Amino acid sequence: MNAPFVSAPAGPLGPLPARRLVRKAVILAAGRGRRMGALTADRPKAALEVGGHALIDWQAAALRAAGVEEIAVVTGHGAAALSGRSLTYIHNPRWESGTQVETLLCARDWIEDEPVIVSYGDILFHPCAPLALLERPGDIVVGYDADHRWLWKSRFGNWLKDSETFALGPGQVLTEIGATPTDIEALDGQFMGLILLTPAGLDQLASAYHAAPEVEQRRLDFTRLLSGLIARGIRVDTAANLMPWMEVDGARDLKLSQRMAEPDLLKGTGPKLIFPDDLKAFAVEEAEDEPDVTAETEEVSTTHAGTGDGHVPTSTLPASWDTARLGRYAEIRTHKVLNAFAVQNWGRSGSTFVQTLFDDHPQVLSTPNFYSRRYYIAWAARIGRAPDDEKISAFLESFRQWWDTGLVDATAGLHRLGPERSEIAGVKREALEGYLRAAFADGRPITRRSLFEAGHLAYALARGQALAGCGLQIMFPVHGEPRGVAAAFLEDYPEARFIHTVREPIANMASTIQHNCFNEFDLRGDALEDALQGLFGRRGGRYGRAHTGFLERPYFPFLALSDQARLLKLEDLHADGARVMVGAAHWLGLDPHPRLTISTWDGRLWWNRPESGKDSRLGGQPLDRNVESRLSIGDRRKIASLVGAAPAVQAAYGMDSPSNLFSRLLAVVSPWRQEALARRSEVRSLTTLLKGARILPRRLVDRLKDVLARERYRARLLEMASGSIGVRKKLPDAQKPNAVRAVLLVTPIKDGWRTRALAGGRRDRREEADRLSILYLDDATGPRSVSDQVFWIVVLTLGWQLARLRTWISVRQLMARLLLAPLNSRSAPLVRCLESSACVEHSELQLDDKPSMQLA
After folding, report:
1. In this structure, are 497 and 608 located in the same domain?
2. Which of 16, 30, 499, 678 sits between 20 and 30 A of 851, alpha carbons compared?
3. 753 and 625 inside one domain
4. Residues in domain MobA-like NTP transferase (predicted)?
5. Is 332 left (phi over 0), alpha (psi -120 to 50) or beta?
6. What is the pLDDT, as a whole number, of residue 480?
7. Residue 403 is part of which domain span?
8. End-to-end Cα separation, the chain, in angstroms
């Protein structure tokens, strides 16, 4: 059934200049849903409720939010349960013996000669899913989830159960669907049950269905039909979904959906479903609320107590921009973006450093650190849903850190740029907004790609970058984002290239552990376990770090086959930076330029992350400086064994995994040095105790949850110095480049906490990292009662020991899975090293003693 892709239109289809207008949608809700048992005895699955709303209401709300005006539902079993809604009802009298395709064809007369969105009746999705379909060209466009592993693991306990093959080719064209997979790496995504069909696409689908023998028609669901179309050479395009969704196929799915749609007091790792009509759907779900912090500095504490609202005053711009004002920024319309490339990391491998070397190249548009990496999520969650006249404002609010210096990322050293380490990253809002508005002053539609390009051009011009006359490219820091983000990026830039930065695995592991501890990540998770999972595990997360298979191999196999992905070894970069950077520029189609050896952000010298050394010059950092303190000799042997789970890195570094079974067993059970170094964590202790909530007294569980909420807030303020952002926003501009020293005083209020800060900003180059202390006032104002003391003794003895035991078991399970299970031969193609891309001359880029500390 799944013949290889035979033919396709020459070259990938480019992105649409404007979003399609699709007025109609059809929801297929005729089936019985037998897996639901008694729940669907008198109603279809589309009538079942999740989060207080029927499934069909979730779909209708999402479709209407995406601009669909007319919705028809094709009914069959239990049709009365769906009545009473503002929908068009079409009945399928043959629902018991018919197929999904036949159910759709019942609505063909209603669809008429118009494009239509088709949705299964048992799925929940955000408005961004149908909106993504409207961004894509082609007569048949299927919606899919590139990051479905978390969902499938939660539903079935096995990634492969109930999965079907789904493979993509250049241009994000579907090349295979519907077969039974044998390896999770064979799946580029999961079909969602959401399709856009133009009249021509519907004709193709209907013709293929009617051409099949009657016996075959009874087995033709959409995936089999799409597979047949692909085998005949008919192009099927795809659109990646970037927000949570759910398929409700059985009773277990219904329970999981309920948990996903309800508030999660323990803030589990899974995605949250938000009803499309809820205003909260505009928010990016991963974004944490900004801490409510008031900074009382030594200079202003006697005269200014602060508002404590967590916001910084912004310049107000005229409601309408006149022609004269827009004329100042008209230069943006003279520039054109040719292509884009992505920088992708494998652990702590120098991806930020690589970005800084491209930063000030006259053909490269970039933003500091990873400021732009959330663009595709922000577009899906908020910006894309806004009307065109509100998209620029939504963009500016989503990326405040581009212009609000109070939000500068001090953890990346962006607050101490320039020769004197006294400059801060960012641009003026008025200039940024002026260029953005001038880019669309001619009234052209604002699409995902056009706003992405205009945003980067506006930032470059607002900071005064000297741009080349042609050949501009955007540098996108995909940096471990979910595969759906890479898919959306490739939809906009089909010929984009990916630089995967890699580093010798032992130094990488040591640096990752050090990074987790330095930035307080180990308050909520074990530093060793997180490093192992991130570098070698295959744990699926809907958001957060992508799967390891996509970090050390390309996001999609075709990227390697078409030479759109290469590895860049950090060791090569430090050993011969000029040759490597010129080779990278040659591969990307950029001109060689002396700035390729200068490490900058916004064209200002960068001195590295606070935990990573004192400067960022090529060859200036010992790459193994954390190994001795974090890893024993035995630990290093374990890592060498684990590299077998990362074949691309294994090939790049020539590391052979021990084949001796005894050696592998010893590696599984022997202790790690970091296990003895792990610091006690209240959050992990409380979380572990709550794992046994079912057997604990209700009052104790409630108290554990209350205390855990407090400790999680404390941890959030400390992690990556996020609390210091609130302090820095309140500091005078002259002090914003300094490291923050503050005591945060937290007062519980009705719906959360109010946080005030006692902060002093002094310039001290010896202390370049933010340092915070967190103090709950109600804990500090009175002595603990006897019951409180007993509570914490239990938590910090029993809870911590159980937490360590849980981590010990988890680490051994991971090690056993990686070392004892044979590697599947169906792995993605390995990526070649970037240094081998070309032998090019680089005489004009000879290195000085300290090139990254000198501006040309």
Report:
1. yes
2. 499
3. no
4. 25-149
5. alpha
6. 75
7. 323-629+832-853
8. 60
